[in-house]
UniProtKB/TrEMBL annotation:
Chain ranges of the P-type ATPase C-terminal domain: 1001-1238
A GO CC term attached to the entry: plasma membrane
Membrane-related topology note: Multi-pass membrane protein
Residue spans of biased composition, Polar residues class: 480-491
UniProt protein name: Phospholipid-transporting ATPase
Organism: Oncorhynchus kisutch (Coho salmon)
Residues involved in Mg(2+) binding: 398, 400, 975, 979
Length: 1306
């Protein structure tokens, strides 16, 4: 029998030691072994439950969760305290009403959210898949929730995987299965999975041992042990993950290893994120101050009551009591705690939750955040930091995919030191840009596939199914036709239809020329063919077509087109004048010369430099200064000049006869893992170097003039962030050499491109190529292009195969082997790929800077590329002074020097600002403990900072440094997995659902589809959310303090006895019901400034950055205002009824009515409906209560009191006078302040109320006034900034006025 756990014995080689953790044992569910069956039953089933509660556990569990809040415990304690006879203040039953109401409202909200999750779980658990049945000996339909570990599951094309399964069988002859992980990480490209060991349920008698469930999507460790004790290693490429979709494979069978909540998908499902906002932290401080005020008031009453009893002479009206005055004062302290409990706003926390949910609802339903191309809208994953959006001071942004489209389009290239500008291709891209600006759609409408149900059809055309949007087709909806081509990711016409460079085409056409062998330029042609061979095969692209799910390669012989006899002859024997024959592979080691040295060329042609010329002193034979099209000497004279029609064979890169925009039946569809890969494969295809098919062991490539070649694929060294490159190891079909083709970052490849020893002429040629390529790379970077270098090498070692099959330390061995393979590379060339800016990025960054937000760009690109993008998006203005920090040592001196330069610039007049550019190496030094201060001081004085060549870890360290040291609100935005750490460290993390998957989105607080949405999210919704919540919280404190003070003043006239001048029902409901609607409505709907004005005037955002709406001074001024109003509200009725026979309740009636009117008119006098509704509710309740209630509030009797008071004119006179005198100072103060020194927000709000003509004139006057001012006020000189107003922002009446005012605001 097998055990799940085994004891560790020293350094044994047991699986537990090698895996480094406890293991899971999985066997077939068909087993008859009872012990193994019990093991399988101990694992989680596939039923998924994301709800918190069940029918029976809801009340106790929800109550337990709500008791985690200190405020709820506090009010429950007071409710219980009121049941103690010696300290109770009013009826015990009434005291529990507020806390019960708050708990009930919160419970209903939690129940509604949980019910939504329950509906989703029920749908997911009810999906159907095929499970192998032991009884029926066949596959039967079962619901997902009935799947268990050890079950055999059979899936067809386009079906969703129900659980984490080990792949046992694939209908593909090579045991390959393709999956789409869009439901898991958002990536629409296909991933390849391999059968670990092909078995069927009938003959499966093996045991699987693997690691315990975890959330690492990229890792799986384990082995399969056969009955013979032989073991086969299992890795991540053998595992099919839950929620992924089967693609391009007819049938697969797997055994379930993780089910339900133990699957990796569920382990990564963390749900909404919860953070504490800055406003909430400030609120907690003020709640503590309220507690202090409460204790002071209660102590005052307790001491006053004790002194009053001690000094009381005649006690005939008191019930005889032996209690001492000190003890009575102690009891009175707790009685006053109960009476004044509303000083702590019991309903504030639940009100904040309701307001934030409503704010999120409005944000998510803002149509401006909808992206019709991606069919996506904003996602609010963090439910309680909406107000932080209005206080951001620093924005840290990624570049690729965040500021740019991440639609990689091949732009130009350099091969063997010769630059090919592809001018026609550049003009094509400009046409696309112009057409998109005019609204024409040359690109795909959506990169997301059409929604459809899982299907068992054998037609494997692409469809997309989301576990969150699985719905059936509507009755009138047609399913996609299985014969229509389906667009894949990174395959829009803009990315595919590349126009070749004519000069490069002429050189490639020499392969088909009968004069090819007479040309000395064939050496350069070798580099060209190798270059495009690397572009075509150095990837993991899956090839398919509309009529064929996947193009696979079997043992296909090399087929040739007409005119290739000369090439074959060349490959077999060569030409003495220019070539040397390839060494025979049989007598010597593969890929080596007879003397054992590696073959230097490792090329399609084994070529040595020409022998006709005399080498120069530097060994650089045959070169001259770079001309217009290259640097190969004599090339213009020796190259065969062809007429323009000679290269027409290369013009159509679609593989069909029609135009590029009309896909033919034989059109190839490339499923790439990244847009860079797709761009390079499409570029190679434009030159007829076409990747036609792929299998596990072979690639089918078509080369110009040579036809289709079957290339044996030996190994793939995938890209990783450590190596920053990718390589493939292939056996060349013509030379039979083992060749390593490598592509990667120029900073890495240029260092690895070192010539072998003992090849002087080759060293000279490679030195020249490296020099010229570096110049071209610098030019590409200045143009803002993404650069990749291409290189190659002959491989002689086979140690990498051992690393591939190792179970122990596999990752370390693979990295070591890859580093050994990728050395002494022969540089072939480099590519320049354009990644265009997203729409409205410059306008968004400009608006954020005007709003006082500092924008930092953190990117891994080259410095020149980063600077170019910074200029293009107006982060770096033409008037800015650029500061660069690039050094390997003495960083401290450099930072001090730059800081001195900034200080001189600030002292001088006319300096616009500084922009700091720091490379990754310098950033390492700057982040050290002793240099942090200098770096922060320098960056704080700069308008913007660009960190280039930065790693993901550096990004997070920079954000954390700025957040913690400067104590500012930070926002990080990115779209890739390398931005996750930065997003999680920032106060607000925003993910962009773009081309790099959903890792950033899943780690973010908010998710948007375009960078431009950040503008409205911060400037409009951020401003509204912060202002609304801040004013609502102050409103709550104000009304509670104001009303509690009325009860406190009454204690001075009742011997501090804890009595109140109103009945207990009105006392409880006053804050809970009568005055609760105004602050709620204010927090949800109030707009101090319209959305259009907030967009046009980004400077209004600064009020939130400075927390002007909720400062400590604002809080205490609100408390003083409440104190004054309570004095007026109490003593005017007191003096009005002095000397009368009015009893306690008659005296309290006008006080309550006046307090209600004062509170309603305090903040929301514009909300007439709420004001009238709340007032009518109060008066109706008190009238009915006074008429029908006889014994509702013992020992007092409110019967007829309010009815009598409301029938007397004195009541209304007192209420009117009290309300006016209480609010008059407040209104006078605001009137004077707004007249003498109005705030920017008030100016903008007043302008919103103007008609279009007056609005236009006021805007013009405002701009002219601000432009003449030297100080930077609300508006800066917009003409200097060359700002354009989008037409969609202005009302129709203002568009005509715009010409007269010029560029007003954007």
């Amino acid at each position: 029998m097998y055990s799940l756990e085994r004891p560790v014995q020293g350094q044994s080689s047991c699986p537990k030691d090698r895996l480094g953790r406890k293991r899971r044992t999985v066997v077939s569910s068909l087993t008859e072994d009872e012990e193994l069956t019990e093991i399988l039953k101990s694992y989680s089933s596939n039923k998924v439950t994301t709800t918190k509660y069940s029918f029976l556990s809801f009340i106790p569990k929800n109550l337990f969760e709500q008791l985690h809040r200190f405020a709820n415990i506090y009010f429950i304690f007071l409710a219980a305290l009121n049941f103690v006879p010696v300290v109770n203040a009013f009826q015990p039953e009434i005291s529990i009403i507020p806390i019960l109401l708050v708990l009930a409202v919160t419970a209903v909200k939690d129940l509604w959210e949980d019910y939504r999750k329950h509906k989703s779980d029920k749908f997911i658990n009810g999906l159907v898949c095929e499970i192998y049945s032991r009884k029926r000996q066949m596959y039967v339909d079962q619901r997902w929730q009935d799947v268990h570990v050890g079950d055999f599951v059979r899936l067809s094309c386009n079906e969703i995987i129900p659980a984490d399964m080990l792949l046992l069988y694939s209908s593909d002859p090579h045991g390959v299965c393709y999956i789409e992980t869009a439901n898991l990480d958002g990536e629409t490209n296909l991933k390849q999975r391999q059968v670990g060991s092909e078995l069927t349920p009938e003959n499966f008698h093996s045991r699987i041992e693997c690691e315990n469930p975890n959330n690492d999507l990229s890792r799986f460790r384990g082995f399969m042990e056969y009955p013979s004790k032989a073991r086969v290693g299992l890795h991540n490429n053998n595992l099919l993950l839950r929620s992924c979709t089967i693609r391009n494979t007819e049938t697969v069978i797997g055994i379930v290893v993780y089910a339900g909540h133990e699957t990796k998908a569920m382990k990564n499902n963390n749900g909404p994120r919860y953070k504490r906002s800055k406003l909430e932290r400030r609120l907690n401080v003020d709640v503590l101050w309220s507690v202090v005020l409460l204790v002071i008031m209660c102590l005052t009453a307790a001491i006053g009551h004790g002194l009053w009893l001690r000094n009381l002479k005649d006690t005939s009206f008191l019930i005889p009591d032996t209690t001492s005055p000190a003890l009575s004062g102690f009891y009175l302290f707790w009685t006053m705690i109960i009476v004044l409990q509303v000083l702590i706003p019991i309903s504030l926390y639940v009100s904040i939750e309701i307001v934030k949910l409503c704010q999120i609802f409005f944000i998510q339903n803002d149509v401006d955040f909808y992206n019709e191309y991606m069919d996506s809208r904003i996602q609010c994953r963090a439910l309680n930091i909406t107000e932080d959006l209005g206080q951001i001071q620093y924005v840290f942004s990624d570049k690729t995919g965040t500021l740019t489209e991440n639609k990689m389009v091949f732009r130009r290239c350099t091969i063997a030191g010769v630059e090919y500008p592809h001018e026609e291709n550049a003009r094509r891209l400009e046409v696309y840009k112009e057409d998109e600006a005019m609204g024409c759609s040359h690109t795909l409408k959506s990169r997301a596939s059409a929604k459809s149900l899982s299907c068992k059809s054998l037609s494997c055309n692409r469809s997309s199914v989301s576990l969150h949007t699985l719905t059936g087709h509507s009755e009138g909806e047609e399913s996609p036709s299985p014969t229509l081509p389906q667009h894949s990711a990174f395959s829009s016409p803009m990315e595919k239809d590349i126009v070749p460079d004519p000069f490069l085409v002429q050189k490639l056409n020499c392969l088909s020329s009968p004069l090819f062998l007479l040309r000395d330029a064939s050496m350069e042609l070798t580099y060209i063919v190798d270059f495009f061979m690397a572009l075509a095969i150095c990837n993991t692209v899956v090839v398919s077509s509309p009529n064929q799910p996947r193009h696979v390669v079997r043992n296909i012989p090399v087929t040739s087109t007409s005119g290739t006899g000369e090439q074959n002859e060349l490959f077999s024997r060569g030409k003495a004048a220019s070539f040397t024959p390839s060494p025979s592979p049989t007598p010597t080691k593969l890929g080596t010369e007879p003397d054992g040295e590696p073959n230097l060329e490792a090329s399609i042609l084994s070529i040595k430099p020409g022998l006709d010329g005399v080498p120069g002193e530097d060994g650089d034979q045959g070169y001259e200064e770079e001309g217009e099209h290259g640097s190969w000497k004599g090339e213009e004279d020796k190259m065969l000049h062809l007429n323009p029609g000679a290269w027409s064979v290369l013009e159509n890169s679609n593989g069909g006869e029609g135009p590029p925009s009309e896909p033919g039946a034989d059109e190839l569809i490339y499923e790439a893992e990244s847009p860079d890969e797709a761009a390079l494969v499409h570029a190679a295809r434009a030159y007829r170097c076409t990747l036609q098919g792929r299998s596990l062991e072979r690639l089918l490539v078509e080369l110009p003039g040579m036809g289709s070649l079957a290339v044996r694929l030996l190994h793939i060294l995938p890209f990783d962030s450590t190596r920053k490159r990718m390589s493939v190891v292939v056996r060349h079909p013509l030379t039979n050499q083992v060749v390593v083709y490598t592509k990667g970052a120029d900073s890495v490849i240029m260092d690895l491109a070192e010539s072998p020893k003992g090849a002087e002429q080759s060293d000279g040629r490679q030195g020249h190529i490296r020099e010229q390529t570096q110049k071209h790379l610098d030019n590409y970077a200045r143009e803002g292009l993404r650069t990749l270098c291409i290189a190659k090498k002959v491989q002689t070692s086979t140690r990498h195969a051992f690393a591939e099959t190792s179970i122990e330390n596999r990752e370390e061995l693979l990295l070591e082997s890859a580093q050994r393979l990728e050395t002494n590379l022969t540089l072939l060339g480099a590519t320049g790929i354009v990644d265009r800016l997203q729409e409205e990025v410059p306008e968004t960054i400009e608006a954020l800077q005007r709003a006082g937000v500092k924008v930092w760009v953190l990117t891994g690109d080259k410095q020149e590329t980063a600077i170019n993008i910074a200029c293009a998006c107006k982060l770096l203005r033409t008037t800015d002074q650029l500061l660069t920090a690039n050094c390997d040592s003495k960083v401290n001196a450099l930072l001090l020097e730059l800081r001195t330069e900034v200080e001189r610039g600030e002292a001088a007049e006319g300096t616009s600002g500084f922009t700091l550019v720091v490379d990754g190496h310098t950033l390492d030094f700057a982040l050290q403990e002793d240099l942090k201060g200098d770096f922060l001081e320098l960056s704080r004085r700069c308008r913007a900072v660009v960190c280039c060549r930065s790693t993901p870890l550096q990004k997070s360290h920079v954000v954390q440094l700025v957040r913690d040291q400067l104590r500012v609100m930070t926002l990080a935005i990115g779209d890739g997995a390398n931005d996750v750490s930065m997003i999680q460290v920032a106060d607000v993390g925003i993910g962009i659902s773009g081309q790099e998957g959903m890792q950033a989105v899943m780690s973010s607080d908010f998710a948007i589809s375009r960078f431009k949405h950040l503008r409205k999210l911060l400037l409009v919704h951020g401003h509204w959310c912060y202002t609304r919540l801040a004013n609502m919280i102050l409103y709550f404190f104000y009304k509670n303090v104001m009303y509690v003070n009325l009860l406190f003043w009454y204690q001075f006239f009742c011997g501090f006895s804890g009595s109140v001048m109103t009945n207990s029902w009105v006392l409880i409901f006053f804050n809970l019901l009568f005055t609760s609607a105004p602050p709620l409505l204010y927090g949800i709907l109030d707009k101090d400034v319209s959305a259009d004005t907030l967009i046009k005037l980004p400077e209004l955002y600064k009020s939130g950055q400075n927390s002007k709406a909720y400062l400590p001074s604002t809080f205490w001024l609100t408390m003083l205002d409440a104190l004054y109003q309570s004095l007026v509200c109490f003593f005017i009725p007191y003096f009005a009824y002095a000397g009368s026979d009015a009893d306690m309740l008659s005296f309290g009636s006008p006080i309550n009515a006046s307090a209600l009117l004062i509170i309603l008119l305090h903040q929301t006098w514009l909300h007439v409906l709420v004001l009238v509704g709340s007032a009518l509710f109060y008066f109706s309740f008190t009238l009915v209560f006074s008429v029908v209630c006889v014994t509702c509030s013992p020992p007092t009797n409110p019967l007829g009191v309010d009815k009598l008071q409301m029938s007397q004119p004195l009541f209304y006179g007192v209420c009117a006078l009290t309300t006016v005198l209480a609010l008059l100072p407040r209104f006078l103060f605001h009137a004077l302040r707004n007249s003498i020194s109005p705030s920017d927000t008030l100016k903008a709000a007043l302008m919103d109320q103007l008609n279009p003509d007056n609005y236009c004139r006021r805007m013009q006057h405002w701009n002219q006034t601000q432009a003449q001012s030297k100080a930077r006020g609300l508006i800066i000189n917009v003409e200097d900034l060359d700002i354009k107003i989008p037409d969609f922002i202005l009302p129709k009446e203002l568009k005509e006025c715009r010409a007269a005012t010029g560029s007003v605001l954007s």
